[in-house]
Amino acid sequence: MARLILASSSPRRRELLLQLGLQFEVFSPEIDESILEGELASEYVARLAQAKAQAVLGRFPDATVIAADTSLSVDDEIIGKPESKAHAFSIWQKLSGRCHDVLTGVCVANAERILYQVVQTQVEFQPLTPNDMESYWATGEPVGKAGAYAIQGQAAQYIPRIVGSYTNVVGLPLHETIKLLKAVNASN
């Protein structure tokens, strides 16, 4: 297989790919992650994943690139990473006692092909008390995470149910990523 590059600085994505025994390099591109007016979460994550893949492919044209972007959607609002404690609490108040969608755009690209897919997982949160929020914030885990939580960490105690891909909620849907990787490399 050609040189494989993960276009992400996410330690979770790196860990997930390592689970599969893949050998890869990491290069995180700088791209504008602004949400476009009227953009749906599915369109947003697809656009960013493709932009990341194309940026890295531009620097390493001989490589196969895996790129992804994960966001949450609740009431048609795109929810990203918390900017502060107050922002995290605001996010959790929206998620508390209800379901939300976690969407990841995955793009696998090489010089010949660019393929992408959006994977959606529904996550149910139990009602959160102010004490739950304070305790969870104190762990430091919510910082830098879409939706201000990490399902693979202490937030699991607040999540009674998911419908869909667990690895998608962590940040990279492995089943779909490998399917895209095989499809892109089938052209070589």
From TrEMBL:
Concerning its family, UniProt says: Belongs to the Maf family. YhdE subfamily.
**Organism of provenance:** Acinetobacter brisouii CIP 110357
Example of a GO biological process term: nucleotide metabolic process
Give the reactions, separated by semicolons, that this protein catalyses.
dTTP + H2O = dTMP + diphosphate + H(+); UTP + H2O = UMP + diphosphate + H(+)
Compartments reported by the entry = Cytoplasm
Q: Which UniProt keywords apply?
A: Cytoplasm, Hydrolase, Nucleotide metabolism
Superkingdom is Bacteria
- Cofactor(s) needed: a divalent metal cation
> In this UniProt entry, which residues are annotated as the site Important for substrate specificity?
12, 70, 152
Keyword Hydrolase carried by entry: yes
Q: Which GO terms describe its molecular function?
A: dTTP diphosphatase activity; UTP diphosphatase activity
Name-wise, this protein is: dTTP/UTP pyrophosphatase
Keyword Cytoplasm in the entry? The reply is: yes
- Active site, per annotation: 69 (proton acceptor)
Alphabetized InterPro entries for the sequence: ITPase-like_fam, Maf-like
Q: State what this protein does.
A: Nucleoside triphosphate pyrophosphatase that hydrolyzes dTTP and UTP. May have a dual role in cell division arrest and in preventing the incorporation of modified nucleotides into cellular nucleic acids.
In short, the EC number is 3.6.1.9
- Pfam families reported in the protein's UniProt record: Maf
Q: Which of the seven top EC classes does this enzyme belong to?
A: hydrolase
Where is this protein chiefly located?
A: cytoplasm
What transmembrane ranges does the database entry give? none
- What cellular-component terms does GO give this entry? cytoplasm
